[in-house]
């Protein structure tokens, strides 16, 4: 029987404290947040407000000091490092500010790599990689290594990689920060399009007003707390 | 998947990879060459020493080596020799009788060990005849002829053609006495042998010492010592059939065996040092590489690669380096060794030392499976084991802190 989960992410009472020498620095102070299936949401806030920390905790990259985090119905707290890696592989796609592609692999191999980790058959994963690169309009550049792609093209490969495993949610940390205006616009349009056609959930930590303007949900975090959570009817 | 990624990763830093491969290959090549040289020297030492007197193995009556009594005999040496000669790898056998006597010439007398040999067979087993400094080797039909060590000849003031008196105890308890003519004087280079040993025809020995047709030992020779060593069980079976025992080269020359074992221990220390140094160089390079790639590992963890998979990938990179380096080292070391095994290495100025072990001044390395593979495999294995250090380090990485690494 398939378990249908309406909320892809559920955070309850999430706190995170860092130790800096003898000082205990709170980064998150009791976050309650639900991200629904199909959300196209931005997470904004001043530097040091805790948005990247929250994104890392939702993505299973970091562990909360207290509280509960569920992704696609699975409780993250208490999972081992290996189990968290498996969860990230199957349920979460990441898009980073610095693209973070594997330098020795071609664009197609970077996308295929995720499916390879998942144990997909070679023909199937190659077809899926080609399909995803087509989706992000990188036909013809499949065999280029990251060093021979522009920043925008690399970020498109990163988006294709993030979506290749059909994740429950894509977490993007400042995805447009390294891109020029035109390329950033194109990328936002692409992600918005993918959200609309495939229904994949996006949560983006960003300062970029263009990204914020295009999302249907805008969450603001200040001093480790949710300051506002605004829903809009449609993205531009 | 991991292997493919690891293979590409090692070529990202070509210069560093080439340096690492060179270190491993040179270390592996040096172990191939030095071990081959060591084994070649041991082989030459053993064969030359054994060919001088002992033979590659001997069949003896039980207890003879501990108490070499003339009465402990092989009653029908011809039958035993026929069986021994039928064993694969055996090229010759020679019967001998041995005892201690007093030799006198003029007013001088010295104790000596006398060996009765069958000249026809003995020449195929030992090389004493080629150590003659004067006179001729024993030949079939020689009656009262005797070969005398140079030291003994000097002590007794003997020269070729002199007649010396031999006095001893025969097998039946009677007095054995004979007058022997010096046919040759030999110098083996081993002072003790040259001072104590004389060789006479077996038939005369058997007659003088009431031996009948019996002998005390049968020396066995082959194309090489290795050929005889590989047939020890077959030779043992022949010996057992006649109620005798087989003594291999190590039992015949325990001092030589000890010298070789000692030298091997010193050599082993050297090999271990080389391996440790190379392993530390490679490990250091890899740990630096792991440190540099920490951020990349964090990214790989973020996209769903397990820490254990990343650790394995890094370990495979190291195994690739070790494997390629070892193969290059084997090729380099084997090529160099093969060339030297044909042309030899001249150690001029070490004649006196080498003569002590009946060795020529030119030595030839001996390339075999053991010398070609032992060092490189040990190096590869140690590097692979050392690779568990970066593996463990990578496994301990946390994605967030790794991604923040500079």
Compose a concise summary of this entry.
Chain A has 236 residues and is an alpha/beta fold. Chain A is 35% helix and 29% strand.
How would you explain this protein's 3D organization?
The complex is a heterodimer of chains A (236) and B (406). Chain A has 236 residues and is of the alpha/beta class. Chain A is built from 7 helices and 10 strands. Chain A has a single domain (38-63, 81-231), classed as Rossmann fold (3-Layer(aba) Sandwich). The longest helix of chain A has 18 residues, at 181-198. Chain B contains 17 helices and 12 strands. Chain B has a 6-stranded mixed barrel with strand order 2-3-8-5-7-6, surrounded by 4 helices. A two-stranded antiparallel ribbon of chain B has the order 11-12. In chain B, helix 1 packs across helix 13 and helix 13 (307-343) packs antiparallel against helix 15 (369-386). Chain B is elongated, with a radius of gyration of 31 Å. Chain A binds chain B through residues 56, 59, 61-62, 81-82, 85-86, 88-90, 92, 94, 96, 100, 102-105, 113-114, 116-118, 161, 165, and chain B through 1, 5, 8-9, 11-12, 296, 299-309, 398-400, 403.
Blueprint (SSEs and pairs):
The complex is a heterodimer of chains A (236) and B (406).
Chain A: E1 7-20, E2 23-36, E3 40-44, H1 51-58, E4 66-71, E5 74-75, H2 81-91, E6 92-95, H3 107-117, H4 122-135, H5 151-164, E7 169-173, H6 181-198, E8 201-205, H7 209-214, E9 217-222, E10 225-231
Parallel strand pairs in A: 3-8, 3-9, 6-7, 7-8
Antiparallel strand pairs in A: 1-2, 1-4, 4-5, 9-10
Helix pairs in contact in A: 3-4, 3-5, 4-5, 5-6
Chain B: H1 2-10, H2 14-54, E1 57-60, H3 77-85, E2 90-105, E3 108-117, H4 119-125, E4 132-135, E5 145-149, H5 150-156, E6 163-169, E7 175-186, H6 191-196, E8 197-201, H7 202-208, E9 217-222, H8 225-229, H9 232-241, E10 245-247, H10 249-252, H11 254-292, H12 294-302, H13 307-343, E11 345-346, H14 351-356, E12 362-363, H15 369-386, H16 388-395, H17 399-404
Parallel strand pairs in B: 3-8, 5-7
Antiparallel strand pairs in B: 1-9, 1-10, 2-3, 2-6, 2-9, 4-7, 5-8, 6-7, 11-12
Helix pairs in contact in B: 1-13, 2-11, 2-13, 2-15, 11-15, 13-15, 13-16
